[in-house]
Amino acid sequence: MAKIVAVANQKGGVGKTTTTINLAASMAVEEKKVLVIDLDPQGNSTSGLGVNATKSTPSAYDFLIGNKSVEDAVIEAHLKYLYVLPGSLNMAGFESEAASVKGSQELLRGKLQDPYFEQFQYILLDCPPSLGYITLNALVSASSILIPVQCEFFALEGLSHLLKTIERVRKQWNPDLEVEGILPTMYDKRNKLSNQVLEDLRDHFPELVFKSVIPRNVTLGEAPSYGKPVLLHDALSKGAQSYLHLAREILAYG
Ligand code: ADP
Ligand code: MG
């Protein structure tokens, strides 16, 4: 059975997509078969993995609403063991469509029951920056949630709301949902505030914060413009190494 990890935080720009792409690539390098499902209408993890999706490219949205079989939609991305189910702008419509359908929180979970998914060891869900129906579907389907938190001002804002949402999902739909970990991102060791945020995170959530910390790293920011995970762009960069470290931390934990 695949372990399904939702990469979620309702704040935008905290490193969800960067984490999804680079954690997936690092797991693939560790010979785990990984599928990225791009649930964000912006489709940044799709383009960041080098997939040039057009309007006619079968997407996660088509799969979710039942228009396309998953076999037709999943694409190989760069590395052996690395696959992506592309995102599309259509997914934005799901928020309003879902509101009028009973049980729409459980749509993705139902779809992921397809035996097709058994070939993967990990499925990473890249979520949009909101706690709407798409993210809710991800949390209802997931084995765990990975929460990237940017080491900057207001970092902890919103985190308690997210943790409450996780509690609600556990109570109503998915009692087994675990917190895979809180991941400090864009850490700058020379910056006092960045260090303060890291310290606060470790104080408040000692059990939940990963040992791995993702530094602010120019190479990480520029890799998506080449349509590549950073490992394939500059494997020795601090960014690439930090995501490899995270992958090993998660794989060791199981
Ligand atoms: P989210 O998916 O949460 O909105 P992204 O992963 O898209 O966030 O990151 C937001 C922006 O910050 C992107 O331009 C990305 O390339 C950049 N970025 C993310 N993580 C880092 C990092 N560790 N160092 C430098 N830039 C980063
Ligand atoms: Mg994103």
Write up this protein.
The protein is of the alpha/beta class and 254 residues long. It has twelve helices and seven strands. The chain has helices at residues 16-29, 44-48, 60-65, 70-73, 91-99, 107-111, 133-141, 159-172, 192-204, 218-222, 230-233, 238-253; strands spanning 3-7, 34-38, 75-76, 82-85, 122-126, 144-150, 178-185. The chain is globular and about 50 Å long.
Please tag this protein with its features:
254 residues, Rossmann fold, 14% strand
The percent of residues in helical segments reads 40-55%
Number of helices: 12
The number of distinct β-strands equals 7
Report the uncertain regions: none
CATH C-level class: Alpha Beta
Q: Major sheet: size, sense and barrel closure?
A: 7 strands, mixed
Order of helices and strands: EHEHHHEEHHEHEHEHHHH
From the coordinates shown, what is the CATH architecture? Answer: 3-Layer(aba) Sandwich
Q: What general outline do the C-alpha atoms trace?
A: globular
Distance between the termini: 13 Å
Chemical compounds bound to the protein: adenosine-5'-diphosphate, magnesium ion
Q: What's the average pLDDT?
A: 95
